[in-house]
Amino acid sequence: MSATLTDELLTATGQHCHRYDFVTRMEAEADAHGWARIGMVTDGTGALLEDGEGWHQHETDAVRAQSNWQAACRIMADAAGECGTLWDATGDGLMYDADSFLASDAARRIADSLAGYPLLDEDDHSAREWAAMVEEIEGSPLTLPDGVDGEDVLRELSCPSLGEITTTMVEDVLSGMGYVECSDCSEWLTPVDARSGEPLCRDCALEESRPATTTTLPIPGAAPWRAYTVYGHGEPLTAVLTPYLDGYATEQGAAYREDVRAIVRGSRQGYRAVYGRAA
Ligand SMILES: [Zn+2]
Known about the structure:
Blueprint: E1 4-5, H1 7-15, H2 22-33, E2 37-40, H3 59-80, E3 87-90, E4 93-97, H4 101-116, H5 122-138, H6 150-156, H7 167-176, E5 180-181, E6 188-189, E7 199-200, H8 202-208, E8 212-217, E9 228-233, H9 238-252, E10 255-256, H10 257-266, H11 268-275
Parallel strand pairs: 1-2
Antiparallel strand pairs: 2-4, 3-4, 5-6, 7-10, 8-9
The site of zinc ion has 8 residues, from α8.
């Protein structure tokens, strides 16, 4: 049995430079399925409909292709029965028995529809695009505050478009929702009321409480007055800061650098660490 390719398929093969063994492979596919003639679903421009899983310059192209591919599979299945009988999905595209009126007709409807409008199923496409944007937001280097997910952010963005959501846009949304970013790291905090100053997360507040220290070290062999000074930081004043962190900072939703500095300066440990003797 020698299978043949439909004229459309031969044209698509010629126009879109498919791999040299494409025709041979298609003939083999037709033979394997027991079809005398084989056709492939095209996308309205004459090119073969693709599944969207390969490389795409822009993610919107991939999402559109994936949506159209799945919708085309549904249309073929509705018209010509389950995959593998009168039509089949392969890495090359959607192939069908060109002598089946049902399959050929469905393939023509798909191509005609795409020639007039780039989407076969608008709802399916919107859902995929939405999911891809949520993924884009949640996959960004920015850590969202507890209780906020990609969808919450996406709903607040005006006219978001896939592949174009920047970290700045997400940060603006979070600020608009009342969150502020820790001044020293990327953790988002939820202050109860707007207060000027530099908000800090708990860890960064503890870091801030490390008192500045100076140590005078003699230079071996040199005269005593030629000692040199080493600047450093002591251990975090956890015990001093904990009442503030558990109390006021927790109630306010954030610690503030000014508070931490004032507490450290006013504390016996902070004083001792800085001045080297008890207050
Ligand atoms: Zn922090």
